[in-house]
Amino acid sequence: MERPAIIHKLASEQRTPPHWTDFEAERRVDVWGLARRALQGLPGGGLNMGFEAVDRHAGGVLRDRIALRFVARNTPALDLSYGQLAQQTNRFANVLQDLGVNKGDRLFVLAGRMPELYVAVLGALKNGTVVTPLFSAFGPEPIATRIRLGAGQVLVTTDALYRRKVKQIREQMSSLRHVLLVAEDGGITNEPGTLDWHTLMALAPDTFSTVATQPDDPALLHFTSGTTGTPKGALHVHGAVVTHFATGRYALDLHPDDRYWCTADPGWVTGTSYGIIAPLLQGVTSLIDREEFDAERWYTLLEQEQISVWYTAPTAIRMLMKAGTELARRHSYPALRFVASVGEPLNPEAVWWGQEALGLPIHDNWWQTETGGIMIANTPAFDIKPGSMGRPLPGIEAFIVEHLEAEGEPPRVRIIDTPNVEGELALRSGWPSMFRGYLNNEARYRQCFAGDLYLTGDLARVDADGYYWFVGRADDVIKSAGHLIGPFEVESVLMEHPAVAEAGVIGKPDAMVGEVVKAFVSLKDGYQPSEGLRMDISAHARKRLGAAVAPKEIAFLPSLPRTRSGKIMRRLLKARELGLPEGDTSTLEGGA
Ligand code: ATP
Ligand code: MG
Predict the structure, then answer these.
(1) Which residue, 24, 243, 452, 518, has most beta carbons within 10 Å?
(2) For the chain, where do the domains classified as CATH 2.30.38.10 start and end?
(3) Are 474 and 458 in contact (CB under 8 A)?
(4) What is the pLDDT of residues 284-332, one digit of tens each?
(5) DSSP letter at 390?
(6) Is 444 close to ligand 1, i.e. is its CB under 6 Å away?
(7) Is 539 left (phi over 0), alpha (psi -120 to 50) or beta?
(8) Mutation probe of ligand 1 site: the residue of 146, 270, 369 with most atoms within 8 A of C-beta
């Protein structure tokens, strides 16, 4: 199949007319003002994320539309309409009120992707209570650390998770006032020192007046993925809903008749911003799969659930690629019209794979826990350059900057005007979903700003057409013989080799050149590590990258260490290579 450097957007191929088509014109629009006006606001004034996501529709024509559809292997699907979601979240907000949990108090949810998690998050938002969803696979230590750091007063979890992970550490979390348990068998729980979710919900009234939150009131506390170090707690406000609304249109092109599937777990920011809030704001039906990744299952769901917009991540795409294009082709996806990805750089190989396997290219987009919403994206409105993360969305101003001093306080930077020069990616502060602080770490927060520029910690370049190209995280860039080498470029080339499923590249200290490039690769199904294969991959990399940039060493691993949100942990590859301490591994997939 042809692999063009640009994938053109043809109007005739877009079954649903996209929300926008003119990049330049849209960037002149007051997007935040428009989004604010499209939202309803609270009856007595104020803005509330939960109200906009649920009640705005529950009181209108979308009342009976399915908001959330939960599927699992051995139980029938469960649908919740916007009207039902409004009632359930009202009940939960009343439960919180009864317990004396108020605006500004902090609630944590530790649960799999089950309906009660969504009800708890949205109900707490309506009550003005600040919410943190945690990955249900976290072990006791990461749970305790986060609840302590966030001074959580309420925990919603299941009886089974409580017994396995919380009970023994409960005393370490002195801020916790209430623990609410959802019985996984649907019955009633009677663990000492806890309350039963179903009993409280049954007794609570299903009407509630949303607490009067203002745009600057805290709404969500999200922990970062911990890819580069100890996870940071980023605080977000109700006003972020304006970004969620605008980006749901610009970057995901959601229309009310869409059937949408965001594969991210609510335990990290994508699963909340784009797995809960943004789709509800657009009135779509969201699919929530309660099971773990399984290639065959995912293709079946895409087909049978008639998913039209799909938001997933490079790690999932790589796993699908690993399982082979054949499997994808055994199904057909007539409803699917838009596919997007976030979380890590999306190798060009993966963009083309989308085209081959699903009949659609994959739209990479870029953002961070700190930005609260999608900032730079490939969208329906313009052509895709595979390997680029796209262009800044309307309302967002992005820059490439260079630091004037190595480590200044506050940092001082200069904007680089010349295209194609690598530097740190920065954004002009002021978009509505910008984080408002790192929990208990004001100094770290201040380090993120140079004047009104927010410094992202990622290195990138911008081409003459305004497309941004990810180079690597500032921490991961390799310095070799005077060159700066971005791991992404090397990894993308390794991924071109037919045997390579995933690749992680690090710099290994070297007396002569500073650092040499070392690659770790895992192989696609059907390939075995061998010296011959190593040499073949190495020759391919040298041909494509030149000897200075190609990896000097290639090691095979069955799989690469990654975070629970699916990012390759290069710092761990490096620590292991050098025999150094592994640092914070609380978010390591498969870890405790
Ligand atoms: P920590 O800050 O704790 O090290 P993290 O940065 O991985 O963890 P997140 O906020 O979940 O935590 O991830 C945001 C980061 O993920 C971005 O800063 C960027 O490095 C990477 N990222 C996200 N999307 C993309 C993308 N489309 N292309 C390249 N990198 C991306
Ligand atoms: Mg980060």
Answers:
(1) 243
(2) 395-473
(3) yes
(4) 999 999 999 999 999 999 999 999 999 999 999 999 998 889 999 999 9
(5) B
(6) no
(7) alpha
(8) 369
pLDDT in tens, 474-519: 989 999 888 889 999 999 999 999 999 999 999 999 988 899 999 9
Q: Is the CB of 451 under 6 A from ligand 1?
A: no
556 lines ligand 1 (CB under 6 A): no
Q: Could you tell me which CATH class the domain 395-473 is placed in?
A: mainly beta
CA 247 to chain centroid, in Å, comes to 14
How confident is residue 246, by pLDDT bands cut at 50, 70 and 90? very high
Q: Residue 481's pLDDT is what? A: 84
CB of 365 shorter than 6 A to ligand 1: yes
- Model pTM above 0.85: yes
By most ligand atoms within 8 Å of CB, the mutation choice from 227, 270, 424 for ligand 1 is 227
* C-beta of 226 in contact with ligand 1 (< 6 A): yes
Comparing CA positions, the residue from 207, 187, 205 lying closest to residue 196 is 187
Nearest CA owner, ligand 1 atom 29: 345
pLDDT tens figures, 187-207: 999 999 999 999 999 999 999
| CATH 3.40.50.12780 residue ranges for the chain | 11-366
| Architecture, CATH, for domain 478-578 | 2-Layer Sandwich (3.30)
**Every domain range in the chain assigned CATH 3.30.300.30:** 478-578
CA distance 312 to 340: 6
Joined tokens for residue 260: 């949408």
Per-residue pLDDT at 14 exceeds 80: no
- Identify the CA nearest to 182 among candidates 210, 205, 163: 163
